[in-house]
Design brief:
Helix content: 40-55%
Low-confidence stretches: 30-35
Number of strands: 4
Structural class: alpha+beta
Strand content: 15-25%
């Protein structure tokens, strides 16, 4: 029978303890590296979703801003076209200089076709118009800075309000509509104004 010396027991115990301690440290080291040095799959997915949402919102905001800017430019151009046409109408009426002397009967008209508003309407339309409350002038075509074309419709209207009982006021209604594209039926601007000849102010 062999007898194991106590020193050998001590050596085996020390070796076993040190081996287990080394394995435990290695295991903890790997766990810490995983926790501190990387991201889990769920964290990566959440980050991707957040970035995607942010980019989508930013792009949508840019698109809306561009549309609003384009709309503002179109409205500004449409207003300039209308103002230019009104200036041309005013020049046309100024050149004709409607006097009171031969048209005194229009100060107290019996119908809308015998007042000063009808006289201005006939002058602008270059035609004798009767029996029509609304008269459509030939449409105009205008091109914007972006190359889009728009149709400007002009309607002459004699208001039937009590304020215009003597048919002195002539209303001019503008409508600006694109001639092509997805917004073909979308009117970008409505504008209405009224004119009255100087001779009408001389009526007694």
């Amino acid at each position: 029978m062999h007898t194991i010396q106590p020193q050998r027991f001590q050596f085996l115990f020390d070796f076993s303890f040190k081996w287990r301690l080394a394995m435990w440290r290695i295991g903890n080291s790997n766990t810490n590296q995983t926790a501190e040095g990387g991201f889990t799959l769920s964290e990566v997915i959440v980050a991707i979703l957040l970035v995607t949402t942010f980019v989508a919102v930013a792009l949508q905001g840019m698109v809306v801003a561009m549309l609003l800017k384009s709309r503002s430019l179109q409205l500004a151009e449409a207003n300039r076209w209308i103002q230019a046409d009104l200036e041309q109408m005013r020049s046309q009426l100024t050149l004709t200089q409607i006097p009171l002397a031969p048209h005194q009967s229009r100060c107290h008209p019996a119908t809308i076709d015998s007042g000063f508003a009808d006289l201005v309407r006939d002058n602008l339309a270059s035609s004798n118009i009767t029996g029509a409350v609304d008269y459509q002038l030939p449409p105009q075509i205008a091109t914007s800075q972006t190359g889009k074309t728009f149709q400007i419709d002009r309607k002459l209207r004699i208001p039937s309000s009590p304020e215009n009982s003597k048919a002195k006021l002539l209303g001019i209604q503008y409508t600006v509509t694109p001639t092509s594209g997805a917004s073909l039926e979308l009117t970008i601007l409505h504008f209405y104004t009224e004119v009255i000849p100087d001779a009408a102010f001389q009526c007694q």
